[in-house]
Amino acid sequence: MQTYQKSRWDLSELLPSDSDIQKVFIEIEGCVNQIESKRNTLTADMDGGAFCEILTLTETLSALAGKITAYSVLRFSEDTQDAAALAVMGNVENFLMDMQNRILFFSLWWKSLTDEESERLLSYAGNLKYYLERLRQFKEHILSEPEEKIINIKDANGSGALLTIYDMLTSKYDFVMDVDGKTTHNTRDGLMVYVRDIRPDVRESAYKELFRVFGNDTAVLSQMYAYRVRDWAKEQIELRKFKSPINVRNKSNDIPDDVVDTLLSVCKEDSYVFHDYFKLKAKWLNLPKLRRFDLYAPIKAETKKKIDYPDAVSMVLESFTEFSPEFGKLAAEVFDKKHIDADDRTGKRGGAFCYGVHPKLTPWVLVNYTGEPRQVATLAHELGHAVHSLLAQNHSVLTFHAPLPLAETASVFSEMLLTERLLEEEKDADARRLILSSAIDDMYATVLRQAFFVLFEKTAHTMIEENAPVNELNRIYMELLREQFGDSVDVSDDFQIEWITIPHIYHTPFYCYAYSFGELLSLSLYKRYKEEGKNFIPKIIKILSHGGSASPDVILKEVSIDMRDAQFWHGGFDFIKEMIDKALG
């Protein structure tokens, strides 16, 4: 297997340079002109061929817009302090907003048709049928064309700009740690290495430094959040008449409200599974009780060792290939095409993500690799996303993106493949417990932690609309933390401002339940795979290959999963219990 070294990504497959954006602008405007020329042909009894011609132009436009959007976002993610990158992103956003406003008439016309009229035209839509059906699901929430245009302008220069400022502000934070007589300056990702240190005082210092730095801007960051929430309410509730703030996200995900309610209720009900684990972990660490500072503490000092990037890549690709040669081959494309940026550097966007641009393009992956063992799992996670995207390459650019609740399926499944491989190779009981403990820590972070973020958001959106002061949000956040951990973990007051450090609640309100959904779903699928063996692999491939061409409900029913059934979600927690039992053994 080829050895891969850490490197920055190559964006030339999107655009050779900033100067080429103007060429794409010209292409896009030409496409928009063609769509505009069809406006007078839009009638309920229009010819199927003419309807398909507009759909083809829409696909072309989406591909071009996606290309320059990806270039601008990835370019900005490389260095959020680069003024040229920021200018490019702003230029692209404003240009595309203008173009979107010019073709807004098509989606408004489509949503205005009667069900009978739309059904006739849907018969011509081919693989775009679900895309068009999804548009019509929002027909009750559309406004007039002038109003929609104003909202697009408002979003680009209002809430969108606010989020860019949030990223710029928080990406340049410098976190200072004094450890072993040395002073280090860290990015947030670098700082988070210390919360997994073997020494309790170092873990505590890392969290206190996180909250010190973010806390210096509490007034600004909390006000940003309040503006974001009020903007969400004014547009989505008052103007568009969605039932609730979270209903907006549920509709976007094509998940019924009652399914999300069931998921969140099960997470609260089964939180005791993690309570039991945290009590057990306190014993392993020889602590009377786990503190919130200790949540991700390693249970063995040897975890201080670093894993070289080439070794991490090999571990992940080998685990993928052992499961399915196709999985391994698709994941390797990310490295072969130089579509990964793995450096950890100041100014670069923190965290990790996979950006699928077009079904015919290998996705781009960002990680901030510092050599910590757990970051091998992060690498597996993001490459799982890439495989998911590539498996959907036979769909349209409008339907290859998986809906958010299913978007974590391949990524979490891939993490489990890596964990299983490590367990198979490791014969030492203590080392196996270490692997399992790390995996369970991540399951907590992906299931329970994310579910409680959403529970916080549901309350916060209501309170902000009622003009609650920031300290009331802090109080609610602390109450939910204590409910989340029960009597298994001591939570200090330092954590009351943790919510302002969570980018998702700013960028994508109520996004986080998709992590809980995806994790529990993937654990269930992985359990089925272990029970059925290689015969189950084609079923996994089929689920992933759907991309976003069908509803989550339709896709999951292919493997006999009913997402409305609380017992299904309880089954995910049952798998976690099995993992804890293995760690005990």
SSE diagram, text form:
Blueprint: H1 21-37, H2 48-78, H3 83-102, H4 104-112, H5 115-122, H6 129-136, H7 145-157, H8 159-171, E1 175-179, E2 182-186, H9 188-192, H10 200-215, H11 218-239, H12 245-253, H13 257-269, H14 272-284, E3 290-291, H15 309-323, H16 325-336, E4 340-341, E5 353-355, E6 364-366, H17 374-391, H18 404-407, H19 409-425, H20 429-446, H21 448-465, H22 470-485, E7 489-490, H23 503-507, H24 513-532, H25 537-545, H26 552-557, H27 566-584
Parallel strand pairs: 3-7, 4-6
Antiparallel strand pairs: 1-2, 5-6
Walk me through the structure.
The structure is a single chain. Strand 1 and strand 2 (182-186) form a beta hairpin. This protein has 585 residues and is mainly alpha-helical. The longest helix has 31 residues, at 48-78. Helix content is 64%, strand content 4%. The strands form 3 sheets. The protein has a 3-stranded mixed beta sheet with strand order 4-6-5, sandwiched between helices. Strands 1-2 form a two-stranded antiparallel sheet. A two-stranded parallel sheet has the order 3-7. Helix 17 packs across helix 19 (409-425), helix 19 (409-425) crosses helix 24 (513-532) and helix 21 (448-465) runs antiparallel to helix 24. The protein has 27 helices and 7 strands.
